[in-house]
């Protein structure tokens, strides 16, 4: 976190990201990326900035105050959080002069050309470097004093990122509290944030909450997939309903601060994301899940949804991270949190559905939704029936004598129905799910006279539909089966209204 390493610690030409119009639309809620540099073939600062500009990314967080990077960011307008690395914390926390010198070299020398908006003093110090905890607040105060001397304190905030593990008993959020061991640090730290108009920086990783829960945290709950009301997590003290881990952790931070009598300090999420690849012990570190998490996260931020405790109050968030970092030690997943490979190739096509369309740097948008290899044929049949029924897919090309009838089997027919639904829905995140029997592919499944929507550019939308592709919890639909020999007793249908105004599950 700097995730697992600090706090508890394919590469695919396939798919990703599309920040442009989305990032441009964000003013109230900042949506940015972290830029790590543990990359064997790290792009030059000018190449990094070119990628940021191409994707219209307007907010970044650096893990240091690299001079070349700050010079490359000059005159771009991109808002920058710079960091005091943990290995420099001790000197700054023990010497006002050292702090002043650091600010002079790394901040004053670059503003206003480089739009530095915040300084992160250390990273997850309480959990990663507990021996330095006693000087953390002093380091923050010394940095702030140096900003005052340079007349920059009103423009640049000072804070420090915390691992979410500093919060104990995080659910229900209303009962959460900071680890009391850190009260001698946390109380003066919060006083400092309050008095300077700064914010609590928090690293939020639903992936690890899910992995460490031993099955208690459902995958859908971690990925922002819509849940039926009876599956939502309810805080019995406040009766607030939680549909995702991200919101619950943020509200746990708000309640933890209020427990210490601080009620007006905003939370900024300095790190969050999902790995696209993992070891055999991490089966849910996949491209599909990384795409789903980050796509849904971005939409959540864009909509200024807020949290159940503070609805409508934007939570500025920084995705971890811009590049895969192949030099990071540890598990495979540690190296695969990036949106891009070091050569600028997107790791996956990030589906951003705030406007009902897919925005991607892959301008061809040539992705397809097909049945997952090895999936249960009965489940595929059920999903096929749903797509051709409540899903409102025109399945007439699958009828005998029509161009997509052959080959006459459930997988081939499901491929066509799934892909048609996927493109009618604008390839929105989660619309290629179908109870887990579908997956996104870059291989065109068209054959002979049977042209799939993704290959022909017939990319319609159903933005007003209330039908969602079948999910685990749904009512039944008794519709005709195209392949009675595979038919299942009932079909999964979710007829809930749109959650947050767009499709994702």
UniProtKB/TrEMBL annotation:
PROSITE patterns in UniProt: GLYCOSYL_HYDROL_F17 (PS00587)
GO cellular component labels: plasma membrane; plasmodesma; side of membrane
Domain X8: 367-452
Signal peptide: 1-24
InterPro entries per the UniProt record, alphabetical: GH, Glyco_hydro_17, Glyco_hydro_17_plant, X8
Catalytic activity: Hydrolysis of (1->3)-beta-D-glucosidic linkages in (1->3)-beta-D-glucans
Topology of the protein relative to the lipid bilayer: Lipid-anchor; GPI-anchor
Compartmental location: Cell membrane
Protein keywords: Cell membrane, Disulfide bond, Glycoprotein, Glycosidase, GPI-anchor, Hydrolase, Lipoprotein, Membrane, Plant defense, Signal
One Gene Ontology molecular-function label: glucan endo-1,3-beta-D-glucosidase activity
Membership in a protein family: Belongs to the glycosyl hydrolase 17 family.
GO biological process: carbohydrate metabolic process; defense response
Protein name: glucan endo-1,3-beta-D-glucosidase
EC number: 3.2.1.39
């Amino acid at each position: 976190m700097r995730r697992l390493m600090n706090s508890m610690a394919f590469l695919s030409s396939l798919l990703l990201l599309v920040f442009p119009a989305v990032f441009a639309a964000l003013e109230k809620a900042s949506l940015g990326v972290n830029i790590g540099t543990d990359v064997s073939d790290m792009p030059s600062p000018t190449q990094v900035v070119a990628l940021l500009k191409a994707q219209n990314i307007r907010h970044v967080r650096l893990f240091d105050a690299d001079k070349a990077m700050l010079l490359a960011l000059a005159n771009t307008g991109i808002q920058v959080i710079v960091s005091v690395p943990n290995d420099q914390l001790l000197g700054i926390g023990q010497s006002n002069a050292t702090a002043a010198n650091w600010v002079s070299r790394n901040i004053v020398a670059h503003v206003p050309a480089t739009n530095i908006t915040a300084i992160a003093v250390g990273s997850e110090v309480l959990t990663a470097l507990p021996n330095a905890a006693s000087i953390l607040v002093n380091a923050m105060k010394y940095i702030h004093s140096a900003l005052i001397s340079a007349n920059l304190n009103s423009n640049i905030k000072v804070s420090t990122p915390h691992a979410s593990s500093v919060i104990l008993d995080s659910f229900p959020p209303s009962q959460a509290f900071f680890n009391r061991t850190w009260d001698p640090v946390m109380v003066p730290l919060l006083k400092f944030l309050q008095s300077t108009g700064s914010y609590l920086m928090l690293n939020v990783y639903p992936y690890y909450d899910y992995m460490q829960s031993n099955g208690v945290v459902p995958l859908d709950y971690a990925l922002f997939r819509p849940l039926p009301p009876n599956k939502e997590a309810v805080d019995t003290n406040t009766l607030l309903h939680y549909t995702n881990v991200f919101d619950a952790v943020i509200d746990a931070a708000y309640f933890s601060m209020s427990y210490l009598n601080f009620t007006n300090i905003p939370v900024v999420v300095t790190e969050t994301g999902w790995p696209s690849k993992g070891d055999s012990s991490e089966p849910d570190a996949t491209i599909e899940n990384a795409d789903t998490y980050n796509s849904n996260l971005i939409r959540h931020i864009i909509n200024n949804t807020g949290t159940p405790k503070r609805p409508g109050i934007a939570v500025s968030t920084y995705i971890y991270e811009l590049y895969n970092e192949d030099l990071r030690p540890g598990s495979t997943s540690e190296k695969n949190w990036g949106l891009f490979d070091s050569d600028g190739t997107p790791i996956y096509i990030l589906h951003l559905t705030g406007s009902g369309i897919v925005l991607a740097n892959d301008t061809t948008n040539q992705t397809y939704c097909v049945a997952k290899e090895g999936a249960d044929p009965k489940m595929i049949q059920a999903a096929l029936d749903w797509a051709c029924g409540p899903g409102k897919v025109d399945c007439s090309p699958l009828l005998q004598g029509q161009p997509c009838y052959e080959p006459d089997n459930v997988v081939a027919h499901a491929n066509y129905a799934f892909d048609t639904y996927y493109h009618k829905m604008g390839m929105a995140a989660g619309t290629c799910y179908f109870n887990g029997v579908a997956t996104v592919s870059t291989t065109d499944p068209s054959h002979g006279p049977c042209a799939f929507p993704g290959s022909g550019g017939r990319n319609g939308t159903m933005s007003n539909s209330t039908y969602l592709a079948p999910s685990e919890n749904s009512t039944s639909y008794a519709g005709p089966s195209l392949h009675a020999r595979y038919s299942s007793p009932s079909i999964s249908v979710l007829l809930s209204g749109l959650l947050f105004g767009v499709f994702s599950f």
